[in-house]
Amino acid sequence: MRLNWKPFVLSLVVLLILFPFVYLVFLSLASEWRFPDVWPSYIGFKNWVTVFNSEAGLLKSFFSSLVISLSVAVFSTTSGFLISKAVFYHPKKRVLTLLAYFPYILAPVVFAACLSFFFLKMGLFGNMTGVVVAQFIIAFPYALLFFSSFWNEKVKSYEDLVATLGGNKWQTYTKVLLPLAKGLILICFFQTFLISWFEYGLTSIIGIGKVQTLTIKVFLFIKEANYFYGALSCCLLIFPPVVLLYFNKRYVFKKFV
């Protein structure tokens, strides 16, 4: 009798994927877990209660990260869509597209160090506005490159057809371009949100510790060897990406299948 290993292998793969997330939740509920104990002396919601009492500042960091990431995602997606059209019609579009890769040549920390002088002169050092601008500089080129594949001769023919029928630019965008690019716009919004959400290097340099996003908090707790708060921060950190993943699969992915 031949054994069917497929269900076993599939279950093992699912278990390996879920284990880190389950362990993070477990660690966020634990405290006072010292060697050589095989089980923590306390498991409960004490750490979570502390967070909701704002003693650790995690809720503030969570909402700060949310505001920053949403701002970066909205601005970069909108400007990336509009400017990618101008780049497509530009006679030197290859050169301009190549320049969009420049921010990714350097490591984020090195790139932030190069920008720090200009941000200091403009008063954008150590505040949320500066962090949004710095992350926008990274997210915008991604959006520009992402939308570069959308513009082609077929889309241009649709624009010409609208113009021939007497439509204006507003009607071209609202009736033709935006409906055509709706799925790509949502995906780009999700991607740029995640770029901003998990950004550490730029935020740590430009924010100089005053702007403490959730990612900064995670590294801070790990440096302090506070693994329980670090796990709790990671739980909060992965919550928005999981929500975005659900919406991406529910409303976007089905459109392309």
From TrEMBL:
<protein>
    <submittedName>
        <fullName>ABC transporter permease subunit</fullName>
    </submittedName>
</protein>
<keyword id="KW-0997">Cell inner membrane</keyword>
<dbReference type="InterPro" id="IPR035906">
    <property type="entry name" value="MetI-like_sf"/>
</dbReference>
<feature type="transmembrane region" description="Helical">
    <location>
        <begin position="7"/>
        <end position="30"/>
    </location>
</feature>
<comment type="similarity">
    <text>Belongs to the binding-protein-dependent transport system permease family.</text>
</comment>
<keyword id="KW-0813">Transport</keyword>
<feature type="transmembrane region" description="Helical">
    <location>
        <begin position="62"/>
        <end position="83"/>
    </location>
</feature>
<keyword id="KW-0812">Transmembrane</keyword>
<keyword id="KW-0472">Membrane</keyword>
<feature type="transmembrane region" description="Helical">
    <location>
        <begin position="125"/>
        <end position="147"/>
    </location>
</feature>
<dbReference type="Pfam" id="PF00528">
    <property type="entry name" value="BPD_transp_1"/>
</dbReference>
<keyword id="KW-1003">Cell membrane</keyword>
<feature type="transmembrane region" description="Helical">
    <location>
        <begin position="95"/>
        <end position="119"/>
    </location>
</feature>
<feature type="transmembrane region" description="Helical">
    <location>
        <begin position="176"/>
        <end position="198"/>
    </location>
</feature>
<feature type="transmembrane region" description="Helical">
    <location>
        <begin position="227"/>
        <end position="247"/>
    </location>
</feature>
<feature type="domain" description="ABC transmembrane type-1">
    <location>
        <begin position="62"/>
        <end position="247"/>
    </location>
</feature>
<dbReference type="InterPro" id="IPR000515">
    <property type="entry name" value="MetI-like"/>
</dbReference>
<keyword id="KW-1133">Transmembrane helix</keyword>
